[in-house]
Each structure stands twice: as C-alpha cells, then as structure tokens.
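Example S7 (structure tokens).
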C-alpha cells in the first residue's frame, strides 16, 4: 500500500530542464546512431569528451602531494583569484594594479551568477534585470530565484539570422538607472551571434549613459576567436566609469564540467570599494554553500600559473576552437549540397559552440524521434558535438526535416 504524505499531495511535477533534461534523455537512448547536439559540451573528433593533457599533468602533480582537505577561504585561494583576473583583464590591467578588482571562486559559471545576483539583490532589491531574447534558459531562473523581476531586450534577428542592434538599444532605453543588464561577453548562448566591435561600442555607450549595471557572462572564453579576443569586451567595459560584474567558467575551456570551476569578478572604483564588495561576495557565498571545493580550482590554478602547462592549455584550447570551426564549414557545405536554395552562411558566421539553426520545436522533435539526434527545442545546435563520422548523418537528417 502506498502512503501519501499531505505535504506532497499537491506538489506538481516540475518541467524537465530544457538542456540537462535532453542530455538525460540522450544518455538513456539505446539507438546506436544517436548524436548529442543538445548540451554545451565539447566532444572530440571521435565523439569523446577529452581529458586535456595539461589537466592530466596538473592532476598527476596534485595527486603526488598529500595535502589535507581543509576548508578553503570563503572566496577560494588567492592564487586562483589572481589567475582569473589576469585571464579576464590581462596581466597588468590597472584594475588589478590598483586593487579595484575582486574575484571569488564559485561553483562553475552558474554559481558565479547565483552569488552575483544574490549580492546585487541584497544591495539593490528594487531594480530590474534585463536578459537578451533569447538567452540561456537558466539566466531567468537564477535571476528570479534571487528575487528579481526580469525583462528582455531584443537580440536575435530571426529574418537575417544576425544581431538586432536597433531592437536591443530601443529596449535598453526603457531600462532605469541601476537596472542590471546580462550580456554574453562572447559566443552568445544560445544563438552564437555576437555583436561586432562597432556594435559593442554602441551597447557600451548606452549602458554607461543609462547608468545600467553590466553583468557579463563569459562561459566560452577561447572558443570564439581566442582567449584575448574573446575577453576584449570586458576590457572595453572596464575603461568606463561603471561597476562591472563578470561570471566566468572553466567548465568548457578546461573540459572540466563536473568539477564546477568558475569565478565571480567585480570591478569597483577603488580599493576601499573592493574591500566592501568582497565582504558582500563572501556573505553571499557563505549563505549558499559556505565555501568552495578544493580539487577542480587547484587543477585550473596549477595550469594557469605554470608557464609550460599554460602554453599547453592554450594549444589544446586552440585545437578545440579550430575543430569547431572546421565542423561549421563542413556543416554548411553538407547542408548547402542537400538544399542549394537555402543560405547556410549563418553557420560559419556564428561563434563558439552553438548555432541557432532556425529549426522549429517540431523539427527538433522530429530529429530526435526519427533520427535520435538531440538538439535543444529552440533550434540550438551544439556544433562541438559534430564529428567526421556523424556530420553526414546529421546534415541528411536536418535537410530532411526542413523539407517536410
Ligand atoms: C549549455 O548551455 O548547454 C551549457 O551551459 C550547460 C548548461 O548548464 O546548460
């Protein structure tokens, strides 16, 4: 006999997560031809998630030391925070020199968003938060969880498959001073569409003029055009007189998804502000998960702080970036051959792991039902899941569902 508990009697079944839920369905699929183009994970050319050599070397060196697993500082180790700042801002950026930058280790980029949003809601509960249309689904969930009401700004121009600058600026005109604007610093998720350097100039001007608070999410640094190039927008924002929040992640760039290694960085006006902000960051972390885990960040810190390992990492990251580019070119070529009347240039213009394919939810469902190809319902494809063995199968299936 099943006993029902009154507390749970009316609890509804929550909707499956649009990304992680699909990943679970993929894992359970027994079709040998299945292809996972749903979650933002990099697979190599034989369909494996790589363990980077730089990470293996760092792992060996860490495993040979028997350090006790004591509690870390709430904000994580200083060596990690410094390495993060150098990677985001460049080694001798004035914000680092002047002690105006605060960084804390977080549970992946998601943890950085959560800590940053909690902190912001604590100091500024009346403001709104603005996200791009579309954005990564979890942005809204984390913002609302922190207490914010969320508005959207125009971003993706469906007609051209490009960026809608006019729509974005028009919507941001409605934002009030102090409102938070979530921006993808590079490799926009889910569209892969990034503003040009000039367009970013207009966005930065608007954010500054309207006194908005930029919150830059950078989960794919190194997957667009390079480590330096992909963080350029952070440095351009840092030239302005603005408070800046940055959520960064090493999940993808180190292929360390399960270690949950990320950081929250806040750029302030002076060292005194930085001290006060750090105290608020620590407060938010303590109330969420007390302090961060040791191993993943130690791996990243070891690689970033040892010149030979750092050089190896950059090489391996470039390898991943270049393979994704090749897959973009191949996918465009394969699709154009099958549907010559359609223009697939958007695939090679988009940046990072994702391509917004323009496929409808029904077409995405058909790909999954008929071909065991998993893409997100929005039409987002993870190009990093393509390889020489599955690309023809995927192109064939995509062209077929687009014809139906
Ligand atoms: C994605 O967008 O697929 C990744 O960022 C993974 C995730 O947590 O959703």
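Recovered sequence:
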């Amino acid at each position: 006999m099943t006993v029902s508990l009154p507390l749970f009697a009316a609890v509804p079944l929550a909707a499956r997560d649009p990304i992680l839920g699909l990943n679970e369905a993929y894992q359970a699929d027994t079709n040998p031809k299945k292809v996972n183009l749903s979650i933002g994970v990099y697979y190599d050319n034989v369909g494996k998630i790589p363990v980077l050599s730089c990470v293996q070397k760092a792992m060996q060196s860490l495993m040979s030391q028997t350090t006790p697993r004591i509690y870390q500082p709430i904000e994580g180790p200083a060596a990690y925070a410094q390495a993060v700042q150098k990677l985001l801002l460049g080694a001798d950026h004035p914000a680092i020199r002047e002690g105006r930058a605060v960084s804390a280790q977080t549970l992946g980029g998601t943890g950085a968003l959560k800590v940053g949003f909690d902190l912001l809601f604590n100091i500024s509960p009346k403001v709104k938060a603005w996200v791009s249309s579309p954005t990564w689904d979890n942005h809204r969930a984390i913002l609302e969880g922190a207490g914010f009401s969320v508005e959207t700004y125009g971003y993706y121009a469906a007609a051209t498959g490009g960026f809608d600058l006019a729509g974005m600026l028009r919507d941001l005109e409605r934002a009030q001073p102090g409102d938070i604007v979530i921006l993808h610093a590079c490799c926009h998720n889910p569209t892969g569409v990034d503003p040009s350097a000039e367009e970013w100039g207009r966005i930065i001007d608007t954010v500054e003029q309207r006194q908005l608070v930029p919150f830059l999410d950078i989960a794919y640094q190194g997957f667009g055009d390079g480590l330096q190039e992909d963080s350029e927008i952070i440095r351009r924002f840092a030239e302005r007189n603005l408070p800046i929040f940055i959520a960064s992640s090493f999940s993808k760039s180190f292929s360390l998804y399960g270690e949950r290694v990320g950081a929250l960085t806040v750029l302030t006006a002076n060292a005194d502000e930085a001290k006060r902000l750090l105290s608020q960051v620590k407060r938010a972390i303590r109330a969420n998960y007390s302090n961060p885990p040791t191993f993943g960040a130690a791996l990243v810190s070891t690689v970033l702080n040892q010149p030979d390992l750092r050089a190896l990492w950059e090489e391996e990251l470039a390898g991943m970036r270049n393979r994704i580019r090749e897959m973009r070119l191949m996918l465009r070529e394969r699709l154009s051959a099958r549907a010559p009347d359609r223009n697939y240039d958007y695939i090679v213009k988009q940046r990072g792991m994702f391509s917004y394919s323009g496929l409808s939810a029904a077409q995405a469902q058909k790909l999954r039902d008929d071909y065991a190809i998993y893409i997100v319902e929005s039409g987002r494809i993870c190009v990093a899941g393509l390889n020489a063995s599955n690309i023809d199968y995927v192109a064939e299936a995509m062209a077929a569902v687009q014809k139906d």
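Notes on this example. The chain has a mean pLDDT of 96.
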